[in-house]
């Protein structure tokens, strides 16, 4: 035992205790870094955690998407075209000296004129297809103001003798191929005035420029592709010029009538887009636009362009049934012919031309600023791209290109003469750095922004894809498939369908894939949105279900409570009904009902009804009781069988009230209470008192039937004994309340009835006072009572005035009796509360004696 105790006893306390404050903290090594084993507690629980389903995840078949194409960064393509030098015809004349006496000869033979053609000295020399050397004029070299410079890195330099077709092949063709694949692109011509921009872009009927050649190529290609032509092309041409130097305005060069366009930020609205079916249509439209374009004669150019001209060729699918598809396949080729920068000294512009010149120079400057800022941005992206494009309508319109988002190419046109050195030098210095501008060639075919900013033909309203019909999407997909199969079949005529190496077939397959991918993507987005909506609805429904469940629970609880209450009531009723019942005690209810029926009747009827109630309700009760018990006890207003008239005036309210009081008073009298009947001062703690004060209060107003049923509990003999009821104070107050309640219920009664109510109240107040002896004259002899118990009680009607008078007298008598019998016993409240004058008392007595009531 001792050993056992020793083993459980704590170790002895050490003599010194060291408390270490702020123990040194060490970084806890993570289990991953240390490779330490996890604690054994964790390892014990791990068998509950399912293992990570790595195999399942790996076994999931991920749909094979098209491999993401690597980003191809391309440099901005800049081409240089040198305008042929001017050829001068020099006329030299040789004059011979003749003797004065010589007859004048033929004037034509007088002078020997010699015509010689002189070629202007060139400042620019072509090194190779990609570089040029710019040599300043002799005068400038001598002044050492400038030196020879080499500009290289061009995508191609077109010599002066190159043809328009060369330009098209080298510069436009690659762009057009991309355009036909659905990629947008832009081409702009830059250069000083008279350098050949318009010549390059539009050309002449003999030497068509880029636009006509492109259109030719387009229609030739579309003819080759299919007779049904897969795409439709639209042409729109507009120009931007200044309005007297105040602002920029856009004019539709293909529009009818008023061709001014509404410009809003980068959007140009109202631009007419003409569908072009063939080359002839296209060429005629181009000719129409050229005629409308603003031109003027300057020193530099006899037909100088005074505006920036923009030509848009849009390709759209022919079998487009909805906007979704159109967006995915539209492409825009934009060709811009800028007005050439002008030097005032050279052009000699004045007035309106000078204003135009300023606008042109300004636009050229902004254009250059945009490209420079793009270059700087690409060098250092932290700087951010400056918003120079906002300074000009043209640059706003071409924003996507000038921000490097879409492919574009520039062609610089220069004049090669010595006198054009400064202009050429300025342009080359400015534009050669642009060659370093890069752009990612990953542009999706024609995004939304492009569609909103670019002109378009009036189309159907956009179809919302928030709730699409599956059938529509299926139609689209089916249409796509048909189109592609048709295309493939057509290609199959020229190429072997099994030969997958055919570039055209590859292209078609790629297009098919792309379209299907986009369609499925949109479809998936739509389904996702629908699912989201359903999910939200489901959540709302769940919330409603929860609230309904709660309500149901609370209702069930309430019903349970009600059921228990009902059971309780039933049990109490059973207890009460177990005792003998008196059928005649239905009288109170009957009286009440009758009273209510007669509320609208005259007062006499009411009084009669009340008396009837009194008689019927109490005909079984015992004879009159005249014993004075206690001042606090209330006298029950019961009448004997022989009472032909009430012992005191009765009005319906009083009657009902007293009957109710009686009913309640007889509600729960226990045997003990009956036994203690002789005891005038019942203990407030007695069971009767408790029962009456609690149950009566709880049930006093609930059901009058219950009261009447309880009233039946007592046989006639008992009731006769109980003609004077001893009630505790609570019961008497309850009786008052009942009386009040009845008064309230019958507030619509006539004034006469109200007066009687007041009387009843006064009466009830008086009954609360000391014990009152019922007047002797109301009491009938016992023999009469017995006789009357067998006879049917007679009803006697009295006028209301007499009733009131009688009551007054009764009151007086009661008061007098009380005063006589009790003397100064105290506790009397009636006399104290309602003192009467000596005169009134005498008057009442006289009346009593004379009237013999
Ligand atoms: N490569 C070229 N071959 C032959 N003629 C040319 C060539 N380039 C320009 N020209 C001629 O030079 C003249 C001026 O050309 P163009 O109008 O195209 O210049 P521009 O740059 O458009 O001038 P502006 O900016 O003032 O409109 C025209 O008559 C045109 O025929």
UniProtKB/TrEMBL annotation:
Residues 90-437 form the Kinesin motor domain. Signal peptide: none annotated. GO terms for biological process: microtubule-based movement. It holds the Pfam family Kinesin. Residues 787-797 have a biased composition (Basic residues). ATP binds at residues 191-198. Residues 741-765 have a biased composition (Basic and acidic residues). One of its GO terms (molecular function) is microtubule binding. The keyword ATP-binding applies. One of its GO terms (cellular component) is microtubule. Residues 1-42, 96-115, 639-660, 672-692, 711-803, 816-840 are annotated as: Disordered. Belongs to the TRAFAC class myosin-kinesin ATPase superfamily. Kinesin family. PANTHER family: KINESIN-LIKE PROTEIN SUBITO (PTHR24115:SF1008), KINESIN-RELATED (PTHR24115). This is Kinesin-like protein.
């Amino acid at each position: 035992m001792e050993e056992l105790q020793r083993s459980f006893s704590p170790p002895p306390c050490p003599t010194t205790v060291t408390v270490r404050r702020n123990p040194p903290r060490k970084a806890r090594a993570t289990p991953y870094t240390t490779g330490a084993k996890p604690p054994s507690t964790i390892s014990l629980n791990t068998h509950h955690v399912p293992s990570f389903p790595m195999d399942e995840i790996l076994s999931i078949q991920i749909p094979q998407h098209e491999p993401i194409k690597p980003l191809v960064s391309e440099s901005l393509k800049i081409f240089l075209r040198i305008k042929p030098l001017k050829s001068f015809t020099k006329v030299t004349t040789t004059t011979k000296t003749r003797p004065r006496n010589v007859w004048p000869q033929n004037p034509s033979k007088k002078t020997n004129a010699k015509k010689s053609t002189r070629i202007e000295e060139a400042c620019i020399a072509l090194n190779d297809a990609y570089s040029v050397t710019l040599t300043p004029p002799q005068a400038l070299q001598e002044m050492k103001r400038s030196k020879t410079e080499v500009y290289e890195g061009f995508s191609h330099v077109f010599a002066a003798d190159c043809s328009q077709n060369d330009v098209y092949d080298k510069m436009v063709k690659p762009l057009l191929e991309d355009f036909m694949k659905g990629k947008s692109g832009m081409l702009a011509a830059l250069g000083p005035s008279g350098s050949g921009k318009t010549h390059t872009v539009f050309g002449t009927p003999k030497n068509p420029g880029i636009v006509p050649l492109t259109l030719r190529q387009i229609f030739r290609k579309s003819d080759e592709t299919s007779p049904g032509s897969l795409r439709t092309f639209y042409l729109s041409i507009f120009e931007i010029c200044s309005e007297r130097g105040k602002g920029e305005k856009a004019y539709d060069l293909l529009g009818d009538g008023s061709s001014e366009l509404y410009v809003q930020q980068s959007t140009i609205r109202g631009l007419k887009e003409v569908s072009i079916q063939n080359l002839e249509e296209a060429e005629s439209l181009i000719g129409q636009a050229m005629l409308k374009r603003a031109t003027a004669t300057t020193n530099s150019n006899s037909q100088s362009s005074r505006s920036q001209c923009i030509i848009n060729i849009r390709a759209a699918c022919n079998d487009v049934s909805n906007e979704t598809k159109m967006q995915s396949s539209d492409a825009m080729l934009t060709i811009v012919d800028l007005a050439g920068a002008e030097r005032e000294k050279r052009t000699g512009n004045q007035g309106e031309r000078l204003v135009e010149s300023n606008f042109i120079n300004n636009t050229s400057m902004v254009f250059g600023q945009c490209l420079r800022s793009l270059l700087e941005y690409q060098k250092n992206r932290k700087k951010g791209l400056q918003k120079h494009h906002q300074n000009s309508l043209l640059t706003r319109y071409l924003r996507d290109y000038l921000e490097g988002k879409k492919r574009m190419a520039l062609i610089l046109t220069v004049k090669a003469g010595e006198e054009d050195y400064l202009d050429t030098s300025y342009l080359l210095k400015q534009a050669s750095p642009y060659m370093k501008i890069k752009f990612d060639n990953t542009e999706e075919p024609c995004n939304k922004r492009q569609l909103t900013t670019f002109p378009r033909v009036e189309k159907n309203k956009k179809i919302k894809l928030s709730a699409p019909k599956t059938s529509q999407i299926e139609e689209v997909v089916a249409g796509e498939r048909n189109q592609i199969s048709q295309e493939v079949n057509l290609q199959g005529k020229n190429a072997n369908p099994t030969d997958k190496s055919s570039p055209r077939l590859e292209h078609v397959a790629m297009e098919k894939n792309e379209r299907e991918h986009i369609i499925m993507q949109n479809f998936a987005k739509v389904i996702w949105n629908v699912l989201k909506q359903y999910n939200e609805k489901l959540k709302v429904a769940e919330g409603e279900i929860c609230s309904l469940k709660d309500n149901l629970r609370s209702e069930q609880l309430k019903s349970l409570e009600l059921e228990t209450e009902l059971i309780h009531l039933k049990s109490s009723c059973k207890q009460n009904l177990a005792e003998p019942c008196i059928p005649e005690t239905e009288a109170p209810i009957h009286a009440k009902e009758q009273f209510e029926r007669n509320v609208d009747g005259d007062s006499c009827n009411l009084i009669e009804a009340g008396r009837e109630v009194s008689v019927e309700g109490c005909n079984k009760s015992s004879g009159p009781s005249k014993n004075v018990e206690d001042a606090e006890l209330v006298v029950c207003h019961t009448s004997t069988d022989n009472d032909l008239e009430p012992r005191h005036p009765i009005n319906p309210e009083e009657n009902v009230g007293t009957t109710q009081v009686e009913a309640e008073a007889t509600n729960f009298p226990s045997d003990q209470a009956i036994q203690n009947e002789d005891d005038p001062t019942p203990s407030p703690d007695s069971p009767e008192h408790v029962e009456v004060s609690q149950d009566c209060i709880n049930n006093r107003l609930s059901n009058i039937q219950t009261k009447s049923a309880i009233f039946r509990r007592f046989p006639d003999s008992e009731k006769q004994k109980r003609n004077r009821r001893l009630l505790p104070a609570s019961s008497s107050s309850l009786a008052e309340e009942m009386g009040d309640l009845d008064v309230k219920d019958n507030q619509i009664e006539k004034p006469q009835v109200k007066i009687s109510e007041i009387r009843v109240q006064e009466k009830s107040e008086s009954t609360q006072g000391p014990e009152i002896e019922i007047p002797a004259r109301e009491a009938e002899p016992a023999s009469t009572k017995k006789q009357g118990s067998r006879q049917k009680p007679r009803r006697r009607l009295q006028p209301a005035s007499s009733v009131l008078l009688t009551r007054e007298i009764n009151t007086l008598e009661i008061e007098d009796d009380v005063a006589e019998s009790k003397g100064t016993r105290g506790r009397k409240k009636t006399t104290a509360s309602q003192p009467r004058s000596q005169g009134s008392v005498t008057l009442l007595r006289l009346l009593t004696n004379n009237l013999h009531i």
